[in-house]
Every structure is written in C-alpha cells, then in structure tokens.
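anyone seen this seq b4? input:
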Amino acid sequence: MEQKYLTSFKSAERALKVADHLAYVTYPLIKENKICLQIISELNIFSIYIINSILQYEYYFKNIQLYSNPKDNLETFRSQCVPKYGFSDNEIKVLFEVMRLAEAHKKSPMEFVKDMNVVIMTDSMRTEIMNIDKVKGFIRELKGFLEKIRLRLSQNRLVG
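predicted toks r here
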C-alpha cells in the first residue's frame, strides 16, 4: 500500500503538469486570458497537495504532530517544514500567493478581461490582476519547489 505522502506528491505533480500544459500549450492555441483562472485553480490544487505531502511525510517519520485544524497544520508547515527543506522566501511567497488568488477567485462576485489581464473583483471591491506572464512565473517557481521535495524524497529512495 502506497503511503499517503506519495499519493499526495503524485497528485501535486499531476496538477502542476496540467497547469504547465494549460499555460504553454493550450493558451498559445486559443489565446483566451480566462485560462489564467483555470491555471491558478490547478496551481492551488498543487499547493494543497504538496503541503499535505510534506506534512504527511514528516508525520510518518514522527518529526511533527498533525492536528485536526488545517490552520494549525499550515502553521506547522511554516514553522517546522519550511526551514528544514530550505525553501526560499520567494517560493513560499508564491505558494501562498497562489492559494490567496484561488480563494479570491472562488469568492469573487465578478471577473472580467481588460487588455491582456484577468481582473478579479473581491467582496470589498478591491481588484486582483493576473495575466499569462504572472502565472507562468508562478509555474516556474513552483517547479523548483517540487524539485526540492523530489530530491529530498529520492535521497530516501521514496520517489524515482
């Protein structure tokens, strides 16, 4: 039976591949800026699975404690896992920025395309602006994030 952290890791990989395909194959074909919203959704799925994978891995080897409250687990990730894995400030910033943008998209009363940007209106009438270059930057940064985790797991011969 496969460990939970490997299942989460593989799901994260899949989500990142989908986001990459949307950005570098689908977008150039159809040139629809609203694809950025789907890419952010896939990157959010990646973020959730990859954080779960790290937490489950560390829990499996009895390095951390997990809680029933997701916010407590997220704090455990920030305080104990981030320094241990050597993630850069920018990698963590992008990871949480993606999650924040996905949440804004879910709660948004209105979204529209203006020029080459997708504009998300928040409940408080603030705007979040996205474009294909921004999401491609997220993808590049998160690929590096994934590779650090793959390296750590491969050192223990847990992934290929």
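Strands lie at 110-114, 117-121, 127-130. Residues 4-30 form the longest helix (27 residues). kinda curious what u guys think
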